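Entry for NDP complex. Fields follow.
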Amino acid sequence: MSTQFSNYIGGEWISSSSWIPNRNPSDLNDAIGEYAQADAGQTNAAVTAAAHALPAWSVSSIQERANLLDKVGSEILARKDELGRLLSREEGKTLPEGVGETIRAGQIFKFFAGEALRLSGEKLPSVRPGIHVDITREPVGVVGLITPWNFPLAIPAWKIAPALAFGNTVVLKPAQWTPGSAWALTELLANSGVPAGVFNLVMGSGSVVGEALVEHPEVAAISFTGSMETGRGIARKAVARMAKVQLEMGSKNPLVVLDDADLSIAVNVAVQGAYFSTGQRCTASSRLIVTEGIHDRFVTALRERLASLRVGDALTPGTEMGPVAQQPQLDQDLEYIGVGQREGARLAHGGARLRGETDGYYLAPTLFVDATNAMRIAREEIFGPIACVIRARNYDEALAIANDTDTGLCAGIVTTSLKHAAHFSRHAQFGMVMVNLPTAGVDYHVPFGGRKASSYGPREQGRYAAEFYTTVKTTYVAP
Ligand code: NDP
């Protein structure tokens, strides 16, 4: 029998009557383990444990919180190879990407160890004589964190670390497809001395555990990363009971390539942004908007690069693109490849499943050309290694196409023109803009988030995270 991994509630490892297997998408014969499935009762127990732990943790010393987060960060960094390997094994991103994500998770914990110490308020004179005003930030309460499968360690880290730093208690529900990284992080938190109930892990389905968390009256705030459809449903339920809510969702990110671009930079940036991590990133460049003068040269060079891209087992050295994470995601990718062909876009590379040395969900990096921005492949998030090239007459048209989307997470431009770079940075209607850099790949100490349908509520990460994980109090004092 394979190893079983339990939920963590109130400082105890709690078994379950139901378990699901976690399989390696690079090799379906490789079973990572069986992970407990919580029910609504266990979810409620986790919230109760977090509520009991809140009074003490919310007034704990900032040094205690900083020490805990720093220790967790150090442990993650010390175990980066082992944790990165587990991450790549369960999610399918390449080993360097898995280790990179692990390092980032460690750095996030260390950053928020410092933020616990830096949280400050303001003291202002009152407009009334003899009175002063103190503005302070306090924890929100019990926070429910709901995370997706594509960054199974970094996304939990960038929600857990600020939540704990600012004195909240936490219930985490990771994605069912990738519970292993969240479980490993939980074990590490437990071994680092997190007090009982301050952090709780409930694995299980969104429709059971996720919903119970969102609807629980003692959960004061919900931070969610995932799909738009799920996010909208969560927002409706959370707002109906006046809970604080923060959503990070998908996007159809544009990468604009202008005539004056350095061709090798453009191709590199496009390949990294569209295909690395198998395109399964909310910041992936899925619309490559290319101006006339460079279009044909860019497409030729990109096709050549894709032909040499090494697709294979995520854990094999030299692999540049791992498998798709799961069968339903692979099915969705293949369906969209059919949609693109039926819509009249021309398949310039890939388009089919690949057979690897192991039985995994391998898909060829896929490129459409002659696409228009009206096509579904240009409007709907696919979340796979699939990009489409849209031709634009000039910069103005490229910018208009880039902004013609319901989403707004990240936009990129490749150009040697300072004028166009500056104009694009100002006029791209996105939360993040990249100049001569891939749309995917961000720092951990600065805000992350988008506009339009991509995000809702305060930004995540950096010192902006305090906006969501604290609430402001204004105290008037007449000494
Ligand atoms: P989903 O929305 O399907 O799932 C996200 C999480 O929500 C999972 O833990 C899921 O549980 C849970 N969930 C599902 N239904 C409910 C519900 N009714 N109530 C509460 N929770 C629920 O997204 P994916 O996991 O498929 O992730 C991919 C999506 O995430 C993409 O669209 C991508 O763009 C987006 N994403 C956005 C990022 C950003 O920061 N903007 C970053 C990374 C991803 P279950 O385990 O059952 O699936």
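NOTE: The mean pLDDT is 98.
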